[in-house]
UniProtKB/TrEMBL annotation:
Keywords: Cell outer membrane, Ion transport, Membrane, Porin, Signal, Transmembrane, Transmembrane beta strand, Transport
Location of this chain's protein in the cell: Cell outer membrane
Name this protein carries in UniProt: OmpA family protein
Domain of life: Bacteria
């Protein structure tokens, strides 16, 4: 194919592609991104696309390097691609290309091989596509982007060479050496290659992109042009192309690769619904904070919050119990003739852990014994059977702790007093009568 025919073919291809793009612009309604959320996932976008491309195949690459022929030709190439966009800046693309490569040794005296022509049956590769920047990155919608690609592929090709004497050797099912030594592949030579490229894309519409790109393909062989002229070197070819890419999926969704994540975040922060939710959350937090402050409030400074203080307004410095009420003052030491031993049972009112005044003589005697003689005691708390077992267990512990608090405040060392709660276990009277239940609401003390 000469240059004039090549130019006509490429021009016709681009005219056809442009016509398809214009039709898509006229018929496609713009997608909305108002429902898109920053962390909404890929499901809220269109991520699949399919494209067609056409351009020029050449047996050289832009970075240079040696070639097996003195001159090269530009030939028409074409193909298809399918892309899955995995993120705003990265996607995977399956690409296929067909065409022809050719070159000659014109200008070299007495060349062994005059020219070659290689039919590229297919070159299929999987490549990663990275969007490296956009001219409109700071605007709401991007419309021009740059990309780089790299991957790995598999190709099938059939070289044909013309020798100096005019004879032609076609690798496609023909002899390629003395003694009719045929190539391993009966029809096409097959091998691997690595594509590396870059390009720029333009957003024609919500559905259509116009792409311009250039790919250098490094072949894992030295027979792409039908000769092994350079020994250990590898052949290579390049493909400059233009194409159209069509986004697939629902028109109600925006295309992931063109969505500006900064604009998406801005829209979400400005969403009235979100603002209302944030305000409601702030109000709930304020209410919780106020409740916490109320729980911590202690107007009389006795260490018991107002909500649990049964004796508000206690004078400063007054020793209080767990309910905020003043602790009773120790009674005078009883005379030796007293019958109180300090180990009598201590009773409590229904659902209460507050000490009765009638228990003070017993507690004062017990305090005196512990302070004068030393030793240790265990304070065992009990409850009647009203209420749940768990609540009664807690109540019995509270009753035992009330006794310990009284003893410690009267001068007994805290290490001398141990407490245990048994709940409604070990009743000393029947819980079926009120008289029995009154006896079971008790604390018993025992020497260790």
């Amino acid at each position: 194919m000469n240059y004039s025919t090549l130019k006509k073919s490429v021009a016709l291809s681009l005219v056809a592609l442009t016509g398809v793009a214009s039709l898509a612009v006229a018929q496609d309604a713009p997608a909305t991104s108002s429902a898109v959320k920053v962390f909404g996932g890929r499901g809220q976008y269109r991520t699949w696309s399919i494209g067609v491309h056409g351009g020029v195949l050449m047996p050289v690459v832009a970075i240079g390097g040696s070639n097996d022929f003195n001159k090269w030709d530009a030939n028409l190439g074409y193909g298809l691609n399918i892309r899955k966009q995995l993120g705003h800046s990265f996607g995977l693309e399956l690409n296929g290309t067909r065409g022809k490569l050719s070159g000659n040794n014109e200008g070299i005296s007495n060349p062994a091989v005059k020219d070659f022509e290689t039919q590229l049956q297919y070159a299929v590769d999987l490549r990663g596509v990275v969007n490296v920047g956009s001219i409109d990155f700071l605007r709401r919608e991007n419309s021009v982007g740059f990309f780089v690609t790299a991957g790995a592929g598999y190709m099938a090709y059939a070289p044909k060479i013309t020798l100096a004497n005019g004879s032609v050797i076609d690798w496609k099912g023909k002899a390629v050496g003395p003694a009719d030594d045929r190539h391993d592949a009966k029809d096409y030579v097959k091998g691997f290659y690595i594509p590396v490229g870059a390009g720029v894309k333009f957003k024609v519409s919500e559905r259509v992109n116009f792409n311009l790109g250039y790919t250098m393909n490094f072949v894992d062989a030295d027979n792409l042009d039908g000769v092994y002229a350079k020994g250990q070197t590898k052949d290579k070819f390049s493909y400059g192309y233009a194409g159209l890419e069509f986004s697939l999926g629902s028109s109600a969704k925006p295309t992931l690769e063109w969505t500006n994540p900064l604009a998406t975040m801005y829209d979400e922060l400005k969403d009235p619904t979100l603002r209302q939710e944030v305000e409601a959350l702030k109000n709930r937090v304020s209410a919780v904070e106020k409740s916490v402050e109320d729980l911590k409030k202690d107007s009389d400074g006795d260490g018991v919050a107002d909500q649990f203080d049964k004796c508000p307004g206690t004078p400063a410095g007054t020793a209080v119990d767990g309910s905020g009420c003043p602790l009773p003052k120790p009674a005078p030491v009883e005379t030796p003739t007293s019958n109180v031993t300090g180990f009598e049972k201590i009773g409590f009112d229904f659902n209460s852990s507050v000490l009765k005044t009638e228990s003070y003589p017993t507690l004062d005697k017990l305090s005196s014994v512990l302070r004068e003689n030393g030793g240790k005691v265990t304070v065992n708390g009990y409850a009647s059977s009203e209420g749940t077992a768990a609540y009664n267990l807690k109540l019995s512990k509270d009753r035992a702790n009330s006794v310990k608090t009284y003893l410690v405040n009267s001068g007994v060392n805290a290490s001398q007093v141990a407490t245990k709660g048994y709940g409604e276990a070990n009743p000393i009277a029947s819980n079926d009568t009120e008289e029995g239940r009154i006896q079971n609401r008790r604390v018993e003390t025992a020497r260790n």
